[in-house]
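Researcher: I'm preparing a figure for a lab meeting and need a structural model of a single chain. I don't have an experimental structure, so a prediction will have to do for now. The sequence is pasted below. Please return the structure as tokens so I can convert it later.
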Amino acid sequence: MTNITWDVSPVIIRIFGIPIRWYGLLFAVSFILGYQIMAWIYARENKTSQDMDQLLLYLLGGTVIGARLGHCFFYDPGYYLENPLKILAVWEGGLASHGGGIGILISLFLYRVKTQESYLWLLDRVCIPVSLAAFFIRTGNLFNSEIIGVPTSVPWAIIFQSVDPVPRHPVQVYEAMSCLLTFFILMLIYKKGKSKTWPGLLFGVFLILVFTARFFIEFFKTRQEAYSWDFWINTGQMLSLPFWLAGLVLVFMAFKKKD
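Model: Understood. Here is the structure written out token by token.
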């Protein structure tokens, strides 16, 4: 059986010795597209562009800070507590989606306090571009040959040449595709107008879809945390459960309000 060999460089080009990486490019593309989607939503709902620009600044800060701190303290707290300056070394890699999610929730709350906008209204709209951004970020992980899967003999296994010669589950692709599917489902629900009469529905569906996929895909990943415990599930799965439960509660409440 011939497996796919992945030997793509994470660096696209060097400009004056500075590496331009696929991950950084895809991260930037996710925010550009996210901006366009939010502009369309705000125009559709007669919101001002000034409010949207301010919101995206909050989201950018919350996502990056939350994702970085999440990586540092969820997956390798010992190292970063001993080397606190390394927390700032974002260019070395290391962003955790759970931390990014928490950062987004906090930044939206701060934005809501300042603008008095409905928190659920914000969550229902922002989760749409966030799901698309997650697709690009996981694709960036693929270019970095990071967050790799466990060894496997499935026909679509990938050999990450910069890691080892072992065929592995392409878990970055699994997560990227699940996020892309989530984006299309959310867009369909939003276009049907359900978010206007069922507050919390979109965000609840987002949490259920993203973290259900994340929970099961974790079984095919190599362990990321630098510490270990005796549970049958790993750190990523433990962190996914409260988000998933919150999604169930939101969907239940949305249906209850509709009734």
